[in-house]
Structures are given as C-alpha cells and as structure tokens.
Amino acid sequence: MDHSVISCDEALHRLEHFDAVVDVRSESEFAGDHIPGAINCPVLDDAQRAEIGTLHKQDSAFAARRHGAVLVARNIAHHLEVSFADKPRDWRPLVYCWRGGQRSGAMTHVMMRIGWHARQLEGGYRAYRRAVVRALAEMPSRFEFRVICGTTGSGKSRLLRSLERAGGQVLDLEDLAQHRGSVLGGLPLLPQPSQKEFETRIWWRLRSFDPDRTVFVESESRKVGDLRVPDALIERMRSSVCLRLELPLEQRIRLLRDEYLHLEQDRATLFRQLDCLVALHGKEKVQSWKELAARDEWAALVERLLLEHYDPVYLRSIGRNFVHVADATMIAPASAAEADFARLAREVAAM
User: Which residues of 136-149 are buried (b: 16+ CB within 10 A; e: fewer)?
Assistant: First the structure.
C-alpha cells in the first residue's frame, strides 16, 4: 500500500487535518476551479504545458517526457526555495493535480523525501469535482431553508447580510455568484466565477452549516447571471417556507440607487444592459428609459424600471416557482436604513 496517497473521500472528510492544500496544476486550471483554500504552485505552467505538447507531437513522447522532467524539477526547486522555505519539519500538505498522476506524484515524492508528511490526493481534481457534484445532489435535503421573497429593491440581500451579522446561517447565492441576479446585476470590475467554482463555493458554504439550524436564502431564479443554481438546491428552495419582505416604493428606489450607483456613473454600461430588454419591451420604451438617464432623472428611471419591468416579471414568476409564497409571513423594516434591517434580522432570526 502506498501511504503517500489518500482517497478523495477521506481527504475531504479530514481536510482540516492538513496544514495546506497545494494545487500543482497550471494557473489556468487553478483559475477555473480548485479546492477552497488551496495555493497554486504549478509543477508546469500553461506555457510549459503547451511547449511539452508541441514537442510530443513534433518529436516523440520520450523527448517530451525528458524535457518535461527538466521543467518539473526546476519548478519544484523554485517552490521549495520560495513557497515552502519556512515550513517546519512536521508540515502536512495535501497535494493534487488533474488526475492524481505525475505532477502531484513528483511534488509529493520530493516533499516526503525531505521529511514532510505530504499526501497525494488520489484521483486529483477530477475525483474532487465528482465528489462536489455528488454532494450537491444530496446536501440540500439535509437543511430547512427559509426563503426571503420580495420585489426588486425590497432589500433581500441587505436582510441576508444583516441575518449573517446576527449569527444566522445564510446562503447568499448572489454573493457567491458575484452578480445581483438581474439584467443590471453585473458587478463592476468583478467577473463571475466559472460554473464549477460557483458550485464549489456553494458546497463549501453548505459544508459549514449545522443541519439542525435554519438556513436563510433569497428567492433566486435558476440562473444568477450566467451561472446555474444546482438542481437539487433550487428544487429544495422552491418547496421551502417563505418570508415576504416588503418596503415602500420610495424606499425601494432609494435602496436601489445606493446599490447601483456605479451605473449612474457609467451610462455606456447601463445603456448596453438596457438594450438587452429591447426584445421584451420594444425600442421605444427602452429609449424612453435611456432618455431619463441622459437627463439625470435617476429616481424616475428606477421607478419606471420597477413598475414596467421588474415588478411584473417578479409577480409572474414567484407564485409559479415558490409553492409556499402565498402563505408567506410578511416582514418589513421601518426603513431601508441598515439599522432598521439589523433590527428586522434579529426578529427574523428569533422566529
């Protein structure tokens, strides 16, 4: 038995046992998704992998392996001198690559020869990814969710943040997806993660929750921006008890202007996003919205968007998708102020 190798199930169950998780894949592989908390120490970077692939095609497998060994040795030496220079004798890293093969095997071998208690993840990232997919198919059934419903601008995300600060268990899918979930919901200078990373973030968050306590979540659609909520999770949410958050129109407008201030400062981006609604509302109506923005009539624009687009879309979809929304308990803050949402959060957490 190779005691340097650990199965994926055992590794994920004992993840906190390791002092570090070392992802030796290339930088682009790491960027696509990785085990939460992992550090990226490529044994071969993107350019080097492409170089070896070309050598394999144009020369031979032997030439590619020989040159690859040179690059791997240099890169491992660099990481030993830089990334791992201060690690103590009893350091316990978990090491993985794509399939748990040559790249992670080389790094683990050197670490063990040094004397560190290194373990190689059997099956690599592929095994980890399969484990996440399996977990997301069954984990949602463990939890009792409370779904915060409410029209756009009623403060659902603000309430979730307040609930989390009050000690509640919160699954904020928009935060994990880096998107506010609407046609105007993209965050400035913050691209969405990959679908795989989004699912990893959800799995990691659910993994931290106590099944005996309620989990609060927003009444999301199947997609948050370009990302799809896992099927088992969205179905569990849609069958859960709902709370209906209400805020007067004037307060909703104020809250949305606070949260979407970047669009008031970037009309070009706003206009591009509004153009996405032409197929639904026609050029004339969309142009009338743009003219309000051009005249800096922001409150009027937000009110028009709410009454003419967001509210009708919400009212058509919420009753169809969330089966308990008709029986939802109504909750309302005194105003859109953070302090009033904090007070409401304490009341909701105590329900």
Answer: beebbeebebbbbb
Q: CA–CA separation, 38 vs 107, rounded Å?
A: 15
Domain definitions of the chain by residue range? 5-133, 143-349
What does residue 241 show for φ and ψ, rounded to 5 degrees? -65, 140
Residue tagged active-site, from 41, 97, 149, 242: 97
Give the largest Cα separation in the chain, rounded. 73
CATH 3.40.250.10 is the classification of domain 5-133 = yes
Domain 143-349, CATH: 3.40.50
For 280, other C-beta atoms within 10 Å of its C-beta total 11
Distance CA 338, CA 287 (A): 34
Does 41 qualify as catalytic in the annotation?
no
CA-wise closest residue to 106 among 50, 47, 43: 43
- Per-block average pLDDT, block size 10, for the chain (351 residues)? 84 96 97 97 95 93 92 96 96 94 94 96 97 98 96 93 96 93 68 96 97 96 94 97 95 89 84 89 93 93 93 89 93 93 94 81
